[in-house]
Amino acid sequence: MPTRESPATVDGAARAASFTDVFLPAWLDIALPAGEGPAPVVEELPDKGGPSTTLAQARTAFFLAHLGHLGGKPRLIDAARRINGFITRYLRDPDGGCVFAVNPDGLRIGSIEATTRRTYDQTFVLLALVTLRRADPEAVSEEEIELCWSFIENSLTDTANAALWENDRMAAAGAQPGDLRAQNPHMHMLEAVLQCLELTGDPVWADRARALVRAGERFFFDPATGAVREFVGHDLVPIDTVDGNRREPGHQYEWAWLLMRYADLTGDESARRFVGPMADFAAAHGWQTEGPMAGALFDALSADGRVTEATHLLWPLTEAGKYFAALARDTGDPAAGEKAREIADVIFGRYFAPGDQPSWVNQFDAQGNVTWDAGLSRLLYHVGIFVAEGASAGLWPLTSSDRAAG
């Protein structure tokens, strides 16, 4: 495993600026088979040859299309088109729902787990479709986007509560005592719907976004602390259990970022009242301030702010970075911009290999030891959107070629 650098010696802004046009092409050289037809990206590096999941494929197609379009990078758009072609051909059912996983050659897996259509996964399919259509209108039709939404609306929506089921099997059977209902599908569906609103301008997506924000307020935003619950019970009622008391700092920042975007896109300023309490809860309890992992977020807290998982995944930092970058862009707050740059230093100095090598790790313990060394492809979505948000805020150029031109 390549030696990691100290965040204090890394120019995270420079590494962020080279992510789109240096890191990603090098990664695609080894992560996507050569050729022109539909193909899956590897799930992780080193490649263990496991199943190809809708989650990893759709996330990757989305962020490649997004960065490819913003940065004018045809290779990234072409890669997104090929990955989406694999999703369409092998993972998608005729009703528009996508199964959890297939073999890398496209052969279906007969297990219940593999054939379940998860709401969480479907959010990224919608993100990929609408974003790829903007990047390459010939790659995705409006009918495909509507088919995807039809499946979400008709097969994954708990209409009695204006919430989302976890998957199509729960939708068919109903939630049973002991089942958990998660905030995560609602959060990422809001992300997808806001992307649809921004890229299409169709006000129907604003109505759909509004319903998801209301579901968050009703079921997942804890009025006592302002923090986001990870799970509630089968009936969407809070539960006093380990799962029910779980709070993840990364999701506080992710929801805060989305609610800011929601307010910007819809004009519904009332949603901003939730942003401060979420960010304040994470700021008060979520950051490691000492030792080799200073500047990283804890993976999980309890409802009262106690650290319950003193490990440090990569993705929570990217969500905090997105929040501070957006805050810097929207308010001009220099402290928020500096915080986003510091986060970039930690991400690219601690989690990524030196230089622009396509190598990274997923998690460290409190002592700075790697506890999960997989380079998961689905994590690059988090990094890519953080890079794009930082560029939007003027914290770094979107590509290193932009830096050279400037």
TrEMBL record:
InterPro entries assigned to the protein according to its UniProt record, in alphabetical order: 6-hairpin_glycosidase_sf, 6hp_glycosidase-like_sf, AGE/CE
Keyword Aminoacyl-tRNA synthetase: no
Origin: domain of life: Bacteria
Family: Belongs to the N-acylglucosamine 2-epimerase family.
Key words, A-Z: Isomerase
Keyword Isomerase applies: yes
Lineage start: Bacteria, Pseudomonadati, Pseudomonadota, Alphaproteobacteria, Rhodobacterales
Name of this protein: AGE family epimerase/isomerase
